[in-house]
Amino acid sequence: MTDWVRVCATSELLPGESQVAWDGDTAILVVNLDGDLYAVEDKCTHEDFELSAGAIDGGEVECTLHGARFDLRTGEALCAPAYAPLPRFPVKVEDGAVWTRDDR
């Protein structure tokens, strides 16, 4: 299992904001939804495109390439053309920072 990767200071990830961290070759999108932190792979499961370029609204992120939407809390694909869920990753807050890791 890989080590935890620092995403940012907690003050840099306020409610409604997101950050991208890299764990090796994996881009991880970390989002603050009303004080709860969620982390998913920053790659649409329909086509290899970064989800961080899309809009985050109501706990969902939309891929700007073809309009697929995903639930950030569960990773579930919510509409076509994506059918596979997003990989989810653990998030922790420690020493004033947000951390995540690719634990697959």
TrEMBL record:
Signal peptide (from-to): none
PROSITE patterns the record matches: RIESKE
Gene3D superfamilies, sorted: Rieske [2Fe-2S] iron-sulphur domain (2.102.10.10)
Entry keywords, A to Z: 2Fe-2S, Iron, Iron-sulfur, Metal-binding
Ranges of residues in domain Rieske: 5-100
The protein, known as: Benzene 1,2-dioxygenase ferredoxin
Organism encoding this protein: Arenimonas soli
Lineage of the species this protein comes from: Bacteria, Pseudomonadati, Pseudomonadota, Gammaproteobacteria, Lysobacterales
